[in-house]
Amino acid sequence: MMLSVIIPVYNSAPFIAETFHDLVHYLEGLDRDYELLFVDDGSRDDTVAILEARCRGQSRIRLLRNGKNRGKGYAVRKGMLEARGEFLIFTDADLAYPPSEIGKILAVLEAGADLAIANRVNSESRFIMSPAFFGYLYTRHVGSRAFNWLVRKALGLSIHDTQAGLKGFTRRARQLIFDRQRLEGFTFDVELIYIAQKFGLRLREVPVVFRYFSEPTTVSFLMQSLASLRDLAAIRAHDRKGAYR
Description:
Blueprint: E1 3-9, H1 16-28, E2 34-40, H2 47-55, E3 61-65, H3 72-82, E4 87-90, H4 100-110, E5 115-119, E6 126-129, H5 134-155, E7 167-170, H6 171-178, H7 188-198, E8 203-207, E9 209-212, H8 218-240
Parallel strand pairs: 1-2, 1-4, 2-3, 5-8, 6-9
Antiparallel strand pairs: 4-7, 5-7
């Protein structure tokens, strides 16, 4: 069965060539049919030029482009609905989750799950990070746990790490979820899980290796948090209007 890997990208020029190489190297080693889709979300740097040069002549690799920056949720949905695989996985462009973690998600889907979600707070998960970020880790962990608690209370979700940027879907789950997805920003992950639980899909959380590369500024972190709170209210409003039927 074909595996589709979707990579949303935005202003990723500093690392996208290495990402391309590492992903292709990993996928070629799986010895199975696959396709790799990069979805550029209106990058203003050299991301598109770099990817166009590397995708040229590659039958298994495609570059999709948004006319303007729409948000990670929009880019992931576009890639998912364009993909042809029976199993579909998206992950972050900076490979915060090493390519080998794709295999863990795939194995869970092949074992019968409809939706497989990376869980960074699982006791078996492992972080790889620079000592320079040790001071941020506790604050970020507390913030993440507080948001997850709010999600569980507000929406009744049972998932422990909704915002992990590595998730996999069967083709049936893809159709049910992404045909109904509305959010285009970073909280789209919560909406995906909310829809999945409404349809009674089988969700599995998967321990992973996570590479902690960077820390957002306080301002961007606060802005993202406020946007996420608005999105939780939007999910409830969309549900009341019947968007997830």
